[in-house]
Amino acid sequence: MKNLTEFSGSERSRDLSRLKTLPKFYIREIPIFGDLILAPMDGYSDMPFRLLCHELGSAISYTEFINVDSLHGRVPNQVMARKLRFDSSEYPRTIQIYGHDEDRLVEVAQRMEAEYAPTIIDLNMGCYVKKIAERGAGSGMLRDPEKIGRVFSRLTHCLRVPVTGKIRLGWDEDTRNYIEVAKILEDNGASLIAVHARTKKQGYTGEADWNAITEIKQAVKIPVIGNGDVKTVADIDQIKAQTGCDGVMIGRGAIGNPWIFSRKDRRDVTPEEKIALMRRHVALNADFYGDRLGLVLFRKHAVRYIQKLVDGDDLRLPLTHCSAQLEFERIISEFEQVHEIARLTD
C-alpha cells in the first residue's frame, strides 16, 4: 500500500502542473493557482480528503476548524494534532481558528504560526452551530462588528502570514450586516473574505443569496470567495458570472464528488473512477488514522460516493459496517465482478 507521501507527491504534481500557469488571484503576496477551493468542514476536510481534492484541483488547503479554547495553554491532544497536520504537497496551507475570546484568538494564532508554519491563518465567522454561535464565536461574531475589527487589527499586526476571514451574511434577516463586516475586515488588514451567502439563522436552509456576494465584491478591493449552493459545474460558472467573485468555495457539493474541482459533475464520473478513488481514500484514511478508525471515518464518504452508481445501494449496508481494509477490498471486488467493472491501475 502506498503511504501518504507517495500518494501526495510527484503523481499529484504532474496532474496539477497543467493548471499552474498564471495565478487566478493573490492572497497578499501568495499566488493562488486555481479558482476552486474545498471549504473547511468539521469532520470532513481532514488531510486524506484534502489530498484527494488537492490532486483534483482544489487550490487552497484549509484545516477543519480549530477551537482556540482547546489549545489555550495546552498541548494538542491526538485528535487536535491530526487536525493540524499537513502533507508536504499541500500549499497554501491554511489553519482555520474560531473562538470568542479576543486574547485567546491572538495567542493561539501566534502559536499556530510559530509551531505549524501555516501559509495563512483564517478566522471562522460562519459556523452557525448553536453552542458555538450563542457564545459569540463563529457566526456569533457577526453580532459584534467592532470586536471583529479589534481582532483582525491585532492578528494582522502580530502575525507575519496573511489573515483571512470566512463570514455569513449576518445573524438573521433583520441584521444582514455583511457590507459593514466586509469593510471592517478590509480596513483592519484582512487579505481575503470568503462568504457563505446565508445568515446564521438559515444554517443550510433556503437559498444562498449570491447577490450579496456581488455587493461585497463591489464594496472591497481584496479577493472575495463565493460559497453556498454550488453543487455542479454549471453552478460554478453561474456564481462566478453573477458575482464576479475571485474564486468559488465548495463544501457539501464536494462530498462524494471531489471531481468537481476538475470541473466534472457527479453524473459524468465513471463507475471505474469512483471505485478507484474510493480505494485510494480508504488507503489514505488507513495510513492516517489506522485501519479500523480509518474505515469507520470513511463510511460517511462512502454513502456519498455510491450515489448515482448503478446498484450502489447494494454497497450501502456492507460499506457502512466495514471496519477493515481487507473487508472493504472484498466488498468492492465482488461488486466489480458482478457488474463487470474494470479495475483502474495507477
Number of helices: 14
Order of helices and strands: HHEEEHEEHEHEHHEHEHEHEHHHH
Taking the sheet with the most strands, its summary is: 9 strands, parallel
CATH architecture title of the largest domain = Alpha-Beta Barrel
Spatial extent as radius of gyration:
20 Å
- Helix content, binned percent: 40-55%
Counting DSSP E segments of at least 2 residues, the number of strands comes to 11
CATH superfamily of the largest domain: Aldolase class I
Principal-axes geometry comes out as globular
- What distance lies between the first and last C-alpha atoms, to the nearest angstrom? 12 Å
Multimerization state: single chain
Summarize the structure.
The chain contains 14 helices and 11 strands. With 346 residues, it is of the alpha/beta class. It folds into 2 domains: 4-262, TIM Barrel, CATH 3.20.20.70; 270-339, no CATH class.
